[in-house]
Amino acid sequence: MKYEIHEKSVEIFGKEDFNPKHILECGQIFRFFVNCEGNYVVYSSDKKAEILENDNGYIVVTKHPKYFAEFFNLDKDYSKIKSEIEGLSPVIKEAINSASGLRILKQDLFETVVSFIISANNNIKRIKLIIERLCEKVGSRIDDYYAFPTIDQFNGLDEEFFKSIGAGYRAPYLAEVKNAYLLLNKGDLGAMSDIELRKNLMKIKGVGPKVADCIMLFGLNREKVFPVDVWMERVYYENFGEKKLSRPEISKFLTEKFGNKSGFIQQYLFYSKTVKN
DNA sequence: CCCCAGGTAGGCT
DNA sequence: AGCCTACATGGG
């Protein structure tokens, strides 16, 4: 994708492979909103970006253009990916048509771990609400927003606190996520196979196979995973399989079917099933 | 009042 | 290993 990094923005040329609505509303990230001017604003870690549209494409306005160029993975060729997968199934073709400008983000790992622990058996509106409260109460104030809390800022946050922000029965997991995360991050994550990495992620309380897959896909750039939730379970039975399987088995089946395109296909499908036009 | 949401942990067999 | 159920909370 053609783009230029400027001092306080990233200029993106073309709209075929970049659409802020598709990128942000597909369930991979929870800290974003549409401002009063109709532009998407997104936060990652302690950074902020506003995405403006123009005739040629989009301008990502931010103090951290290099960070967001990486965050949006602008060097990834999505035209190629889409052309390679659209013929695989009518439901995939339809999903791509509904979310043609979707991209998988490269998010901050700690934020991704915490966010997807909160996501379990929850709905997106409430996930966003809980994370927003967390940032407001604990995160550093920067300009006109709050950063996601750092690992150090998780020190001393107990179960009571996480209940107070609405985390419900996930509160004890969040109260101890810091230690498990630090232990995990001591290892050489990049050297681990997908299976090994998933196994290690699942040592964190509140992280099962589905949440581990989301962390791998959105926070660790592992594209060969297929997170299976209620929605993907439905897609499986409606389009790809007759045999009754558990969710991890469905994930394995679809990963073997779609190989290194698994993560992309999963996201196009998730968007098309969950987002109204 | 019910059911559902990007599931998981713990207990049982 | 594979099945079963409780689980907080807010919205429809």
Reconstruct the topology from this structure.
Layout: E1 3-5, E2 9-13, H1 20-24, E3 32-34, E4 40-44, E5 47-53, E6 57-61, H2 65-71, H3 78-85, H4 90-98, H5 109-119, H6 124-138, E7 141-142, E8 145-146, H7 159-164, H8 171-175, H9 177-186, H10 194-201, H11 209-219, H12 230-240, H13 247-258, H14 262-274
Antiparallel strand pairs: 1-2, 2-6, 3-4, 4-5, 5-6, 7-8
The chain binds a DNA duplex (13 and 12 nucleotides) through helix 5, helix 6, helix 11 and helix 12.
Core attributes:
single chain; 277 residues; alpha+beta; 6-stranded antiparallel beta sheet; 14 helices; 47% helix; 12% strand; DNA-binding
Alpha-beta classification:
alpha+beta
Helix content: 40-55%
Topology order in helix (H) and strand (E) letters: EEHEEEEHHHHHEEHHHHHHHH
Separation of termini?
25 Å
What is the gyration radius calculated from CA atoms? 18 Å
Residue ranges: pLDDT <50 for 5 or more in a row?
none
Name the average pLDDT. Answer: 97
Number of helices: 14
Describe the main β-sheet briefly: 6 strands, antiparallel
In the sheet with the most strands, the strands line up as 1-2-6-5-4-3
Classify the beta-strand content into a percent band.
Answer: 5-15%
